[in-house]
Amino acid sequence: MTYERIFDDIDNYIEFNTCVGMYDWSCLAKFVLSWQFVGLTLHLLGTDQHKRLREDVEAMNIFGSFAITELTHGSNFRAMQTTATFDPKTQQFILNTPCMEASKCWVGNLGSTATHCLVFAQLHTQNTCHGVHMFVVPIRNKETLLPLPGVLIGQMGSKLGLHGVDNGFMALKNVSVAKENLLNRFSDVTDDGTFISQFKDAEKRLSASLGALLMGRVAIVGISVANMRCALVIAIRFSCQRRQFYSADPKLPREETPVIEYPSQLIRLVPSFAKFFVYERFARQLFKYFHQSLKANIRGDLKESDHVLGKQLHVLSCGAKAVVTSCAQSVIQTCRETCGGHGFLSSSNLGKIREDNDPQLTYEGDNFVIIKQLVAYVIASFENTGAVELFDFKIDQREAAKVIQPIGSLDSLKDLNVAIRGLVLALLKYSRHTEHSRLELARAVVNSVAFQTFLTWLETHDGSREKEFLSLMAQLFALQVLYEKFGLPLQCGNSAIFRFESAAVANRRAVHDFEEGSCIGS
Fold first, then answer.
1. What single-letter DSSP state applies at residue 146?
2. Virtual CA dihedral for 76, 111, 119, 129, nearest 10 degrees?
3. Helix (H) or strand (E) holding 130
């Protein structure tokens, strides 16, 4: 695989990552961190002077890591304390960790194997700090893998999951790197120490640098969906084979009933099954949005529309990462419980799936922190323009007229789409002033975008039998979203927006229809 292959064939790239990851996420994580994250960051933020480094990463001649988080600073990038001070006499940057709290930590590949590290540090020159920038720092001898002078490296210690990834910590003391080791796509330092940048605004400079992190959040959404797939396959197969209790019907054969046929089992597994289908298509589309943005950035001739789409991708990926990873963790736990005691065995693999998925709720941004970026964007957009736009998804306050009256039916996908969009509008208009309601707003936006994405794809899907099944999955997803938010619009002060009793009844009816018509239990 080459970087050009990624740019030209995004579907195969997604399948490759998914297949390797479902076999062993630790194996994929080590490869992705070096070959994809470091390599593509050199493409995005580097220039021609970094061509040799890119080639070495692609050829696996060097192994990379990505050092952002510090012991006391994670989400707050601006307050990072690691420094990189330019010395005009030697034409080098001197990197230092000023205190223990500034030590880089939780860096994947750093503990044992990385030879180079992309380090986020405060750039100082001519007695002025110009904010966080990224530097390529050699940290180990490529032959012996021993730390280089001035580099203190250690392992973070035993973890709950992803045991194959060597997460480490690092402190730097007067480590010198050449001026060319600054990733200078947007900012640079002249030989005399003068700082120059395409952006006068420090916030825009930081946003341009952090754009490389988008690939992490987008990838995590896909990983979480794959974990849902693995867990659901295990739980459904087990439920088809596991038998408990005899049927009370004397006309039926005297044999125990597969647990998949019990409503208590179906009501836990089938809605999760529906969520997987919708989020899987959403994750693919999100990666295609990122692919579109990636090609525009590498091309270099960014238009205003590219900046707008980049902003939308940033906030949508923040919300999607928070919603889908949390959902996946809940689904995996449900699958573990539906397998009873056997699900607690290591051999079921459910424990490993759960523990490997767990850190995704934290790394690349704590879920409760990054989801607020989507909230802020949605509210500001709605207040300024009366609408919210995220790629192909657009919702306008004028739609409120369509959903002010009670919905008479929740049987059609069209009605369900109106209902979910109405939930977003209701939260925007009546309930966005408390922390809880703002988080609910973000979740509603993500689910609405995901549902519309799935419906758009479904319209192009061939095969009547498959389309009927996928339509049922879409219906179940939407009903579950409404059912989980039961009563929210009533708290918003407009009791006429939805008849949520209909959602509850329809949700139970849809699960029953799935039980009657599905081949899972056969």
1. P
2. 60
3. strand 128-138
Separation CA 270–CA 277 (nearest Å) = 11
In 9-103, the DSSP E strands lie at 64-67, 83-87, 92-96
Round to whole Å and give the CA distance between 518 and 397.
Answer: 39
**Which string of b and e fits 5-15 if b means at least 16 CB within 10 Å?**
ebeeebeebbe
Measured CA to CA, the distance from residue 435 to residue 197 in angstroms comes to 37
Per the CB < 8 A criterion, the answer to whether 313 and 214 are in contact is yes
Question: What is the β-pairing status of strands 116-125 and 128-138?
Answer: antiparallel
Cα dihedral 174/205/221/327 (nearest 10): 100
Whether 105 and 70 have beta carbons less than 8 Å apart is answered as yes
Cα distances from 470 to residues 207, 227, 276, 479, in angstroms, run 39, 20, 11, 14
> Got the DSSP string for 405-417?
SPPS---SHHHHH
The C-alpha torsion from 17 through 23 and 28 to 29, rounded to 10°, is 120
Burial class (CB in 10 A: 0-12, 13-18, 19+), 100: exposed
d(CA 388, CA 385): 8
Amino acid letter, residue 337: E
DSSP for 372-396, written as a single string: HHHHHHHHHHHHHHSEEEETTEEEE
Specify the pairing of strand 187-189 against strand 195-197: antiparallel
List per-residue pLDDT tens for the chain, 522 residues long: 566 666 667 777 788 888 888 888 899 889 888 988 898 888 888 888 999 998 999 888 999 998 989 898 877 778 889 999 999 999 999 999 999 999 999 999 999 999 999 999 999 999 999 989 999 999 999 999 999 999 999 999 999 888 999 999 999 999 999 999 999 988 999 999 999 988 777 777 777 777 667 888 898 999 999 999 999 999 999 888 887 776 677 776 667 778 888 788 888 898 899 999 999 999 999 988 888 887 777 666 667 777 788 889 989 999 999 999 999 999 999 999 999 888 898 889 899 999 999 999 988 888 888 899 999 999 999 888 888 888 888 888 776 555 544 444 555 787 788 888 888 888 887 766 778 888 889 999 999 999 999 999 998 877 677 888 888 899 889 888 888 875 443 333 333 334 334 444 455 555 556 555 554 433
Amino acid identity, residue 58? E
Residues with catalytic annotation? Answer: 364
Q: Is 88 exposed, middle or buried, given 0-12, 13-18 or 19+ CB atoms closer than 10 A?
A: middle
Contact predicate 86/93, CB 8 Å: yes
Residue 195 phi, psi (nearest 5): -85, 130
Q: Is the Cβ–Cβ distance between 118 and 54 less than 8 Å? A: no
Mode of pairing for the β-strands spanning 243-246 and 195-197: unpaired
- Do residues 479 and 510 touch, judged by C-beta distance below 8 A? yes
